């Protein structure tokens, strides 16, 4: 299969000659003939359906959103952080000017307006016409079939923790476990014993078969030992100095 | 293996459909693989209740699969069961094609079939009872609107 892939790029070479690919100049934006826009169908029904589904989910209990509060504050905080970074880089004289100018900017900007409007809860007449952003949703437990979900997820939505047994040391259960382990051990030993017996039996059979050969091989050949040839008795062979019996204790 | 852009797309879809809380849980599951509830709470830094609700929604819409692993070494006599949650990436991407599915069904079959499929796509999973009730409601609503139309014409 690999040779097929290789050959793909060398079609122009002719006769399967092994030559390098011809270098061509790289063009950043080559002229491409785009298909006619009018021929592409505009699938409005799909867009409408997907918008419908999305609106359904947004209005349903499935839509969970983290309430983002004090947007203006956050943006203001970011600007202040940015200011602190730039201040490190600017000389001390210009710091004053920057602080003053940003101070004036913040006072007159939308951020200060936001802060003020958050602190006072006065309802304006113009706010009445605005659509309410908070949508009252059903709780999830009303919609979902809770039986078919993991228990740890359902426990919370009902407001009840699943009743947990207090974890206590139960000596009886430990003893039972020990008994079980002992049984296992005994069984394992029994199995081992059986295996050994079988092995022994097998070995005996083998021995019976090989008796003649082994007798010959196992004959004690102590010749090397007695002759002291090729026998290592941990003695220093090169410094064989006789102490004249000093090692022996004198009584 | 899901590419990082695939994960971005899936998270965007979930964010669009179910809001940013659910999307946060989903992103963690996609990036880190199967996780337990405790780990999800730790990684997302949301409250346990928020995470539980997000998981319920994701499971309901077949974007997450829960499975339990039994491990030995529990404190009580039985083995400790450990529930883990796994994101189903392909199912998340299929959410883009829901309108296409609806269109094909409406072209091939009748309006009733479309209604049934629409219910399933909206709610993720429904029991037979729920589907029957929903179909009944739809039929009654259609009747009442017809009647209203007729009476309006009369008036």
From TrEMBL, chain A:
<dbReference type="Pfam" id="PF11705">
    <property type="entry name" value="RNA_pol_3_Rpc31"/>
</dbReference>
<dbReference type="GO" id="GO:0005666">
    <property type="term" value="C:RNA polymerase III complex"/>
</dbReference>
<feature type="compositionally biased region" description="Acidic residues">
    <location>
        <begin position="203"/>
        <end position="251"/>
    </location>
</feature>
<protein>
    <recommendedName>
        <fullName>DNA-directed RNA polymerase III subunit</fullName>
    </recommendedName>
</protein>
<dbReference type="GO" id="GO:0006383">
    <property type="term" value="P:transcription by RNA polymerase III"/>
</dbReference>
<comment type="similarity">
    <text>Belongs to the eukaryotic RPC7 RNA polymerase subunit family.</text>
</comment>
<dbReference type="InterPro" id="IPR024661">
    <property type="entry name" value="RNA_pol_III_Rpc31"/>
</dbReference>
<feature type="region of interest" description="Disordered">
    <location>
        <begin position="180"/>
        <end position="251"/>
    </location>
</feature>
<feature type="compositionally biased region" description="Basic and acidic residues">
    <location>
        <begin position="180"/>
        <end position="202"/>
    </location>
</feature>
<keyword id="KW-0539">Nucleus</keyword>
Automatic annotation (TrEMBL), chain B:
<comment type="function">
    <text>DNA-dependent RNA polymerase catalyzes the transcription of DNA into RNA using the four ribonucleoside triphosphates as substrates. Specific core component of RNA polymerase III which synthesizes small RNAs, such as 5S rRNA and tRNAs.</text>
</comment>
<protein>
    <recommendedName>
        <fullName>DNA-directed RNA polymerase III subunit RPC3</fullName>
    </recommendedName>
</protein>
<keyword id="KW-0804">Transcription</keyword>
<dbReference type="Pfam" id="PF08221">
    <property type="entry name" value="HTH_9"/>
</dbReference>
<comment type="similarity">
    <text>Belongs to the eukaryotic RPC3/POLR3C RNA polymerase subunit family.</text>
</comment>
<dbReference type="InterPro" id="IPR036388">
    <property type="entry name" value="WH-like_DNA-bd_sf"/>
</dbReference>
<keyword id="KW-0539">Nucleus</keyword>
<dbReference type="InterPro" id="IPR039748">
    <property type="entry name" value="RPC3"/>
</dbReference>
<dbReference type="GO" id="GO:0003697">
    <property type="term" value="F:single-stranded DNA binding"/>
</dbReference>
<keyword id="KW-0240">DNA-directed RNA polymerase</keyword>
<feature type="domain" description="RNA polymerase III subunit RPC82-related helix-turn-helix">
    <location>
        <begin position="8"/>
        <end position="68"/>
    </location>
</feature>
<dbReference type="GO" id="GO:0005666">
    <property type="term" value="C:RNA polymerase III complex"/>
</dbReference>
<comment type="subunit">
    <text>Component of the RNA polymerase III (Pol III) complex consisting of 17 subunits.</text>
</comment>
<dbReference type="InterPro" id="IPR013197">
    <property type="entry name" value="RNA_pol_III_RPC82-rel_HTH"/>
</dbReference>
